[in-house]
Predict the 3D structure of the following.
Amino acid sequence: MKHLRKNVFYPPILLIFCTILFGQINNDLFSTSISKLNTWILENFGFLFSWSSFFFLVLLLITYFSPLARVKIGGKNAKPLLSKSRWFAISTCTTIATGILFWGCAEPLYHYANPPISTIPPTSNASMGFSISTMFMHWSFTPYAIYCVAGLVFALSFYNLKRKFSVASLIPFQQGRINKTVESTIDVICLYSLILGMSASLGAGIYSIIGGLNEVFDIPKSNFLIGCVGAFIIFSFILSAISGLQKGIKWLSTINILGFILLAIYIFFVSYPVDILKIAFSGITEYIYTFPQRSLNIDSGISQTWRYDWSIFYWANWFAWAPIAALFLGKISKGYTVRQYINFNLILPSFFAIVWISIFSGATLHANLISENSLFETMTAAGEEAVMYGLLNKISFNNITIPITLILIYISYVTAADSNISAMSSMSEKEKTNSTQEASILTKIIWGLVIGGLTYIMLSTKGLEGIRILSLFGGFPALFIIIFASISLIKFLFNKKLTNLDP
């Protein structure tokens, strides 16, 4: 711990402690305060989450066809840290994989049963098309664009401009200079944001596993079970994180992506392949047709409350993860060009997400239709975590697919947490210029325990909804950091000196 940046490491831990303490001392005041703050952020900055996300996609498209696209991250002689297949696996599995496992079956049922457009009847073909197109909106190109912009700017800043291993390297200060106090403040904000975002995801992962344990072993949900499952996950990702990038994340992500692919193929062919294709085609058509207006919140047919509860919440959650994800995604991109970076961090993961959603969300909607709304009733009675297992119960060999799904959920979160714990720990210690240098084991352990402790306290007292609200608070300051990062990318595009990054 002798290399610890104390002014970065301790403040977010203190902020988390004060937040928890406030909630325990005066629960009513705490609940009222966070509700008011949540409403204020949504009403005043909700549009900024949506517009900036859309702008990032446009900016990445411009970058893809610009001279900057040919620049190799790390210089023309840089050697890749990872093969393309493992790079794809890590990029896909360390971002939204955990969330899509939890919501991939449950979310479309919400929109199918309760579409937010008055002209769309509930449980109709129109509401089915809306629900699938919404899944594509929430889980493919838009979230990956948020991560992609941030990670690309960091990669070029760290490797090509030789800036610090810090989120502050995303900020477009002249000549890469930044006041140390400002730098530390930015890093503290990002660590705090990620702690909240990871806690929300860990909560979803715990609930998903508990749902599986209840299905397989008939174990009811309890605070004790939450603690046991959470402790096991925390121990696993700490163990993986301390093993390092090449040993831990690499192998877990490879296993995870192969598991995703095989499970998706199986579900597609043994469930309702023709119906899945019909639903997917309808969803993709509507997604493309409505993407601009829904991204920019100019579709007057959708209620503002629905936007706050779903789209804006998701954008905020992605932003909470983005600054730290940038450090990790940028770190592993050495040796590849900017165009290749966009391929493996935006285009390919987005298409993978679309295929996954088409299969699992489509199968869920069709199974719910032919079973007279049974899966929606399952969700209402047993929670969102029960929907995927309800779907698997309607398909052959559920005694095999359910345990496999449980394992995939477990590996998925461990992989995501592993990568971000590694980045958090590296940022908490003094400057690093060596791409293979890892943070100390003790730092990784401490961050793992902080995230695990917060998750348990919030789940056992407030439930998943409390963490969701706090994750919005994490995404709010991170929003402005990623907007600054996009300005840095614009400077890379239009400044000849910055564009010519290869030595």
Remarks:
- The mean pLDDT is 86.
